[in-house]
Amino acid sequence: MNNEEPRYFYGKFMHTPTRSAIEVLTDTLIEVAASGAITAITDHRHANFLSLLERARSSPNFHQFSTSQFLIPGLVDLHIHASQWPQLGKALHLPLQDWLMNCTFPLEARFADVDFASAVYQSLVQTLLANGTTSAVYFATIHPQATTRLAEICLEQGQRAWVGRVAMDDAQQCPDYYRDASTEAGLQQSEEQIHSIRAMTGNQSARVQPIITPRFIPSCSDEMLYGLGTLASQHQCHIQTHCSESDWEHQYVLDRCGQSDTHALQEFGLLTRRSVLAHSNFIGQSDMDTISSCGSGIAHCPLSNQYFADSVFPLRAALDKGLHVGLGTDISGGPSASMFDSCRAAISGSRMLEAGTNPDLAAAQRGVASSRINFIEAFYLGTVGGGVVLDEAIGKFEVGYQFDAMLIDSAARDSNLLYFADLDTDEDLFQKTLYAATRANIRAVWVGGQAVLPEANACH
What we know:
The protein folds into 2 domains: 7-73 and 395-453, Urease, subunit C, domain 1 (Roll), CATH 2.30.40.10; 75-390, TIM Barrel (Alpha-Beta Barrel), CATH 3.20.20.140. The protein is globular and about 70 Å long. Helices cover 38% and strands 22% of the residues. Helix 3 packs parallel to helix 4 and helix 5 (183-198) runs parallel beside helix 6 (222-235). A hairpin with a 2-residue loop joins strand 1 and strand 2 (21-32). By secondary structure, the chain is of the alpha/beta class.
């Protein structure tokens, strides 16, 4: 395949260009430039469609798909702890602080060993791509070499990624064996990490970007937080951190800073258009106003919230307020590598918030009215919504957007996705895909038009 020539994809495409609508593009040809951007979308009703299709067929970069196959946009995971991959599905019965101190910090400390880190990160990135995650936002660890290795692996495997060295210097909240040697050292290493990721060979298009990463306010001194805010401004970097995740964290920040996570992060210079705030379960109206005015985004992590937040994020209220919201798996606080599971959990969580959970209360008193979202909104959040948070043209099939996509096969072997042509509309198939598709249904994945998951037997 000539990587400098345009690529052509012909078949059926389904996406959610807006939060309220599915669009099905049948018998459609999409042209993708070498840069990965979509340059033309032409369907069978176009006057010159047949001649354009014939020209595309003559290209060695032409892909055509069977009637049981269709393409959907790649998924955007806004919150992943890459170093926690080995403990996926472990210790979720513990309270957050115990989980961190007894399980997570000892594991993350092992990433001083670059060989160990490399093996873990290779497995993680490969698995995420196989599950259709084309864009990922990663917390690494405090270790610069291992963090650089994660960025290299993302680049090697073709994933669009934001990779951050975790900053944590507070001796009262971080164990002796796992924290920055000093505030100055942590800031210096965070700045050096920005340069090392941007300078990676083959990263001229910034497929992988650095991201400033204070773990959260409890793990960082004020000096560290102010310093990281300055670095983000100086180097025009994205920022990621946890915000009002749990009762404990939310109250800790109120006690220490005299204000909420949101307002404290703004004071530290860490609330910008490029900020990704993980969780944000306990934000109030004033917090929402501040997040909105700064243009920051929220990584809603419905699976991990069930285990560690002990609350349901007010998703509908945030959306109605106009906040930028996407989804995250929060590996390994969330025990799944599939963003489909995050979409499903976002739906169920919103319905539980609306209906309430206490059967001793009358139905009218049990929940928060008008809180639910539907499957269209959930998929939008997992694709376009994540792109909006990151301020990137990703998540839908539109001219000028990056061609990040996965091929779904409804006739795949060992599939939970069942399609009945005489019963199911295209919208039914889309809905079934969100609720029932698994890794078995994902036959190929592209990022920026480049194949990142083997296409063997996938295209016809």
